[in-house]
């Protein structure tokens, strides 16, 4: 178990760390956390709880994810960590040439063009099949109930829902987008905090996924509806694309950071960026968290990692540079030597050759899950298949239309992906799952909460509550308003272009569960920047 330094108590002023023994579910939505806990109490394990929670989040937080999402998971079972990549590929019929013939010079954000094969339903089915204890239909029942009977919106959810509705009303023009407005803005407006929202189509779809172990979504009636709607509006996604999809079990990647192993999913995800940044700083000693030198080195290491990530990360089999080379000690030291006392403009190196929901679950048997799923950019593409509640993601927006770019669009290729689950171990024993959702903030959040934990001894809640920074581009850095003023001034003196943000929405939303290997006691933290909640018993 990680030792927590009680002298850091002030950072826990918003919430206290939560302890439990028999089971814990940490999410951004109280109803979803409770749904996962209910499944644990019915005899399910941490994997069942994660699936139940993920499905419920498509209902109670549709501003960030949906049935048409992609997903990734890190699963600790019987002393072994397993990785699942359930991100879908581009349709087989799409190509750079076809898009450019239509006058498209960069991948659009909305409509059918950026839609890739959704992976989340297949992730739920695959996790259930390999590690679950309860039938998938029973695990999805809480989500079905909330979709059919409705639920009252929580405050932060209502804020993002209203903001998305206002934005989509301006940009989503065309018949293909009517399903989104019918589903999420009935009567032409977003529901408000405390108001009830329900979706019978969503409930029926979740029932079909549960009863068929997701077969209906990829090779049945739901697949037919998705493909027909795509064809009707000039989309590239076909019935054959859906039928061919299978999630992939992968070997997680890691770096050793000060005697702890930090784990991520390998590319196409951007977890590699977090690992590269930590690898760059693993030999540095940090005297204090609230010190300008600490912030400066973190920011500089993250800039360098992002520069490499932008150049090299795509589907792993398409990468020209091996992950092992990017995470080598030699390359980490090379990048560390570039960090001086002044802010730099990052450029990629040459290594030696050789809008998302995150949840964490744990049960009394020692099983633990780090799970993340997302539509991307809030509600995603703006496409909802009529009568189904299926909101399609727009992950294809990250593809480049430059044929020479590492992440160039190709038929059947998976794009650079922002969503990343994390996991921490020590001496081959699980410490636990962690994650910070939020687009390109995610690896930055991973780095900060891991360093808060390992370097500064913060408990899970304090590690999440601590003020954050976000590197934006070049020398531009955003700081939360709660970052001490002397740090903002000190960073500016080192050449950083500092902006202070007064809204927490851009700094990610995370969850952490750590487990004591001797007692089995679970310590959890959830995000005060959203409607976060921990359910425990």
Automatic annotation (TrEMBL):
<keyword id="KW-0012">Acyltransferase</keyword>
<dbReference type="InterPro" id="IPR052896">
    <property type="entry name" value="GGT-like_enzyme"/>
</dbReference>
<dbReference type="Pfam" id="PF01019">
    <property type="entry name" value="G_glu_transpept"/>
</dbReference>
<dbReference type="GO" id="GO:0103068">
    <property type="term" value="F:leukotriene C4 gamma-glutamyl transferase activity"/>
</dbReference>
<keyword id="KW-0378">Hydrolase</keyword>
<keyword id="KW-0808">Transferase</keyword>
<protein>
    <submittedName>
        <fullName>Gamma-glutamyltranspeptidase/glutathione hydrolase</fullName>
        <ecNumber>2.3.2.2</ecNumber>
        <ecNumber>3.4.19.13</ecNumber>
    </submittedName>
</protein>
<dbReference type="GO" id="GO:0036374">
    <property type="term" value="F:glutathione hydrolase activity"/>
</dbReference>
<dbReference type="InterPro" id="IPR043138">
    <property type="entry name" value="GGT_lsub"/>
</dbReference>
<dbReference type="InterPro" id="IPR043137">
    <property type="entry name" value="GGT_ssub_C"/>
</dbReference>
<dbReference type="InterPro" id="IPR029055">
    <property type="entry name" value="Ntn_hydrolases_N"/>
</dbReference>
């Amino acid at each position: 178990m990680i030792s927590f330094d009680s002298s850091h108590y002030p950072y826990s002023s918003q919430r206290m760390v939560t302890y439990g023994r028999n089971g814990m579910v940490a999410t951004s939505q109280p109803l979803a956390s409770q749904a996962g806990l209910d499944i644990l109490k019915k005899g399910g394990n941490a994997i069942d709880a994660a699936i139940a929670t993920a499905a419920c989040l498509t209902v109670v937080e549709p501003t960030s994810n949906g049935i048409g999402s992609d997903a990734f998971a890190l699963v600790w079972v019987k002393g072994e960590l397993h990785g699942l990549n359930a991100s879908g590929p581009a349709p087989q019929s799409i190509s750079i040439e076809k898009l450019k013939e239509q006058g498209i010079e960069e991948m659009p954000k909305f409509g059918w063009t950026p839609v890739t094969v959704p992976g989340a339903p297949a992730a739920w089915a695959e996790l259930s099949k390999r590690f679950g204890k309860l039938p998938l239909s029973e695990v999805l029942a809480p989500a079905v109930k909330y979709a059919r009977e409705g639920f009252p919106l929580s405050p932060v959810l209502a804020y993002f829902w209203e903001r998305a509705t206002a934005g989509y009303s301006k940009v989503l023009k065309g018949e293909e987008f009517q399903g989104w407005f019918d589903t999420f803005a009935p009567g032409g407006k977003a529901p408000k905090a405390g108001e009830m929202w329900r979706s019978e189509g969503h409930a029926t779809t979740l029932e079909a996924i549960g009863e068929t172990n997701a077969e209906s979504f990829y090779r049945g009636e739901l697949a037919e509806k998705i493909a027909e709607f795509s064809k009707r509006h000039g989309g590239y996604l076909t019935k054959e694309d859906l039928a061919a999809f299978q999630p992939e079990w992968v070997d997680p990647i890691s770096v050793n950071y000060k005697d702890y192993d930090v784990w991520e999913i390998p590319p196409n995800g951007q977890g590699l960026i977090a690992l590269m940044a930590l690898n760059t700083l693993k030999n540095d000693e940090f005297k204090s968290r609230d010190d300008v030198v600490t912030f400066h080195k973190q920011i500089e290491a993250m800039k360098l990692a992002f520069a490499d990530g932008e150049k090299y990360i795509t589907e792993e089999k398409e990468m020209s540079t091996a992950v092992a080379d990017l995470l080598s000690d030699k390359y980490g030291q090379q990048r560390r030597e570039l960090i001086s006392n002044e802010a730099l403009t990052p450029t990629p190196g040459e290594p030696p050759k050789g809008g998302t929901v995150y949840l964490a679950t744990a049960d009394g048997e020692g099983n633990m899950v780090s799970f993340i799923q997302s539509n991307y950019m809030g509600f995603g593409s703006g496409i909802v298949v009529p009568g189904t509640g299926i909101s399609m993601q727009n992950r294809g927006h990250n593809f480049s239309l430059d044929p020479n770019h590492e992440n160039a669009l190709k038929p059947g290729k998976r794009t650079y992906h922002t969503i990343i689950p994390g996991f921490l171990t020590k001496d081959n024993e699980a410490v636990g799952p962690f994650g910070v959702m939020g687009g390109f903030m995610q690896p930055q959040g991973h780095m900060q909460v891991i360093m808060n934990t390992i370097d500064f001894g913060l408990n899970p809640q304090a590690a999440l509550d601590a003020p954050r920074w976000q590197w934006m581009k070049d020398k531009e850095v955003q700081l939360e308003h709660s970052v001490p003023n002397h740090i903002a001034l000190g960073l500016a003196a080192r050449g950083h272009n500092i902006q202070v943000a007064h809204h927490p929405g851009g700094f990610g939303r995370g969850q952490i569960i750590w487990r004591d290997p001797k007692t089995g006691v679970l310590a959890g933290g959830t995000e005060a920047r959203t409607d976060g909640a921990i359910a425990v018993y």
